[in-house]
Amino acid sequence: MLASVGRRMSVPELEMLVLERIARRRPASIVRFNDGEAKLVGAPEFYAQSQLTRMLERWFRDNRLSMGQLVRLRGAVADAIRNADVVGCPDDDWPEEFSRANAVLASLADGVPLATVLVNFPQAMILDGFLQSTLTGIEFLGLVTARDVRGVVRHMLEPRRSVWYRVPEQALFSYEPHLPRHVPELFDFLCASIEVPFPGALFLVGAGPCGKVYCDVIKRRGGIAIDIGSVFDLWAGRVTRPGTDFSSVRDYYERVVGIPSPRDDDVLALAEIHQNDGDLGRSIDLLRMALRLRPGSVALGLKCVECLLLLGDAPSAHGLFQSMAQPVSHSAAVLRAFARLFRERHKTIAGEILVQALYADPTDCITLRLALDVFADARLVVPEQPTRFRRDLVIATGLALSTRPDDHALSFAAARYLGANGDMSEAIRLGVRAIALFPIEIDYYPPVIAWLRYDARDGEADTLAEEMGLLAAVPRAL
Which range scores top for mean pLDDT: 229-233, 299-303, 461-465? Predict the structure, then answer.
């Protein structure tokens, strides 16, 4: 499989290539192509659409893409891979879901050889000391990532100048509603605004599928871009991969958190490291101490609530939220972020918080979608004025759908809520609308088929299932 893609490089060969490009100030794009990117550009030929939609959920969560945005992103990522100098990809003996990425890569290459290297080359470059020795004291270092690692990068690498281009974290900005969505708004902005200060300027990139495109943009502007992915998570103290070793950054975070008024990001990093060590109590103590200094810090509050819930202390988590609710009650997005933490095991608390969020801003469509999902799942009764709230929720949903007619996720959330409350005709109408807007979302089909059968429309249900090849997977009992 790999032979059909191109020559397989060793990590030392890749390191020599990077040194040569830096010395000669020649542009380069070195990217990773793993199962996520393969699902994006390879479905449905190589991966099931359901595998792609699960990946989109992980990347973008509430900020769902339209079909047009998905097609555009898919094309941009495919072009960036073709234009790369070296592509990191899995070995053929890896589990099939990962190794299948090589078949997708071969189809992208279309007979043109692509140099490849093992996909985890960034971790190898750290283990053998290459990144540290090469980047220490470097003239310029660009950082394209969601993580604010400027402090730890200055500590470890001491670049003479560094610039951070901030991108959204995977899935959601959470409590920062003033920031634009990654795709399309911020994606277009970053593609236009990334500046390469001189030929051969080095950039480290970690931005999911969009990061491949940013690497291509940097190369086209004369820079050297290396897609290091989850290395940024390691430097930020975040656990996003199993077996993460924080020994290289632990001392730094323990030192900077010990100074007066440490930065929230540094406190969060050390709390995450303690959590990864299995010491939730230490994480909670650290976060509570920081919250005494900055009681209105949403980031610290969210992390502390998360740790308390992981510890099984829901009353303390709820109490902490209530103590913070007053200073943050103006923001529906902040309340939504807290509600999401309580949703899995404490739906009633999540519902109460979402009521506050919707009355704070009934036009916030992401909060509206979450509320519709939670109330459809739990059949919750709102403690105060339930009839009024249900009426207001339906009115807000209708207004949102009129202003966002292409929002398939909102249409489906509204359909689920109406179906749970017995309005099958409207549930069917909105469910079919969601399918028409985003037909690759397999999870939309079974509920719509169930509503059709409940409404004695078996023929329509069977037709819909047959058209999508799903009839065998959807039991008649629905």
Answer: 299-303
Are residues 301 and 291 in contact, defined by beta-carbon separation less than 8 angstroms? yes
What confidence score (pLDDT) does residue 325 get?
67
The CA distances from residue 350 to 79, 336, 437, in Å, are: 43, 9, 29
Which residue from 240, 234, 195, 238 is spatially nearest to 214, judged by alpha carbons?
195
Contact 271, 236 (CB under 8 A): no
Residues facing residue 144 across a β-bridge:
165, 205
CA distance linking residue 290 with residue 301, whole number of Å: 10
Q: Which residue has the higher pLDDT, 14 or 405?
A: 14
Residues shown for the chain? 478
Structure tokens at 416: 């689920």
- pTM of the predicted model, to two decimals? 0.85
Tokens 């959204």, residue located: 168
115-118/224-227 β-pairing: unpaired
- pLDDT cut 90: percent of the chain above it: 44
- Residues paired with residue 206 on neighbouring β-strands, in sequence order: 145
* DSSP state string for 42-99: HTTTTS-HHHHHHHHHHHHTTSPPPHHHHHHHHHHHHHHHHH-SEEEE--TTS-HHHH
416-423, long-range: CB within 8 Å, 24+ apart, which pairs? 416/372, 416/373, 416/376, 416/447, 417/372, 417/373, 417/375, 417/376, 417/393, 419/376, 419/447, 419/451, 420/375, 420/376, 420/377, 420/379, 421/390
Separation of CA 154 from chain center: 26
Domains along the chain? 2-235 (no CATH), 238-327 (1.25.40.10)
Pairing of strands 115-118, 141-145: unpaired
How high is the pLDDT of residue 176? 53
Residue 421 corresponds to which amino acid? N
